[in-house]
Every structure is written in structure tokens, then in C-alpha cells.
Amino acid sequence: xxxxxxxxxxTISNPILVECTYGDLGSDRTLILIGGSHSLQWLPALEDIAxxxxxxxxxxxxxxxxxxxxxxxxxxxxxxKAYGLDDPxxxxxxxxxxxxxxxxxxxxxxxxxxxxxxxxxxxxxxIFRSLWRDLAAADISVLALRDNPWFATDVVECVAEAADNxxxxxxxxxxxxxxxxxxxxxxxxxxxxxxxxxxYCDSARCWVVRDGVLLYRDRHHLTASxxxxxxxxxxxxxxxxxxxx
Length: 245
Fold this sequence. Notes:
- It contains nine helices and ten strands.
- It is α/β, with parallel strands linked by helices.
- It has a single domain (about 20-240), classed as Rossmann fold (3-Layer(aba) Sandwich), CATH 3.40.50.
- A hairpin with a 2-residue loop joins strand 9 and strand 10 (about 215).
- The longest helix is centred in the middle third of the chain and has 18 residues, at about 90-105.
């Protein structure tokens, strides 16, 4: 994830919705990138895609927060605590504002992270799916990405210590991802669930370095170099969703 000099990514405790615009600013086709830092880490690829595809990218992102259904506050707070969010109340207020703003913008699509949990606990929470149904009812398409693996220790530190053989920092896939894609079968006319796990892992292991490129900048955030390298893969998924809408 690149640095954010324009301060568009909201802090953990501040519930105020902040949005910024990238790509083709005059385009009438808008894609909203929304959620937490794992959504934001895809912005470098989206900036490249936007200029090729004539897309206006609007970001609505907040640290330690995810975009999910905030219609039931008690359910939201319970889910936020279960998923380890640092300030559930702030995230709740931000989500209410974000949902309202998404409906106002009426984008061609929103892009967000679609899974939570690691290894055998990886799942697509119901509180995600209910929000996606509401967006579909408003004729807004959703591109939900399966989240990337979360490593147990800092990848950069491990690679620095194992510079001669960084593959020793790889981890077994079964420890980081569920054997079967938890989003399998969820696709619909206005929902595309995208599993990019083959970019991070083979059938046995999840990598820290691939083809000379470092995948992570800490335990679980992807590097801008890696994300940009795979922009064409994301572009294909975005085009398939937006072009049919």
C-alpha cells in the first residue's frame, strides 16, 4: 500500500467520512473503493486501471474498519468486536455515513474485501452479504475480493534475516486460507466474488517473494509493487462486472 500524502484514509478513532477521487476525474463511470486498509492497498492498481478504462475512482477507507451492514447497531458492534476492530463505535458511525454516500453517488460498482478470518475460520460473514444484497437492490454492483493471507510475523523482517533464502519465510497455505474458497457460489448478476489466492499461494504454500517481488510490507498488507504487477488481473474482473451493468 502506498503512502497517503493527501490524508484520504481515515484514522481509527475518527468517524468522519473522508473521500478522495483518482483516475479519470471527468468520467461518468465511478468505482468506489471502500472498506479498511486491505481495500486501500489495491489503489495503486486501480489508478493504473482507471486511466486505461476511463474510470473515476472514489475512495472511502478507514483504518481498522470494514464495510459491512450497519442497519442493526447491536449486531454491528458484536461483529466488529468479533473481527478484532479497534474502535467499533467509530466504525459504526463511519459505515452509516459511507453507506449513505454510496447510495448518493450511485456508482457503477463498489470494490471491497469480502472475507474475514484465517485458515479454517475464513468465511464470508452474513453481515457482508446482507449489505451486498441491499446494494444490489439499489442496482449497485459489488466486486468482493477474497482477502490476502495474514502472516503470523512481519514478512519484511523475516526476509531481511533470510535474504539468501526468503522462501524459508513462506507459510503453509492451510494455516492461512481455507481449503475451499469461502465465496464460491456467491456470484450473481450484481455480485462478483473474486478469489485471487493463486497470486499469493500455490496448493501447498503461501509466498513472501514471488518472481523477485516482495508481496508484503508487514504481516498482511500487500506492497504497491506487487499490486501493480497484477493490475491486469484486477482489470479483467472490473471490466467483466462494469461492462455488464
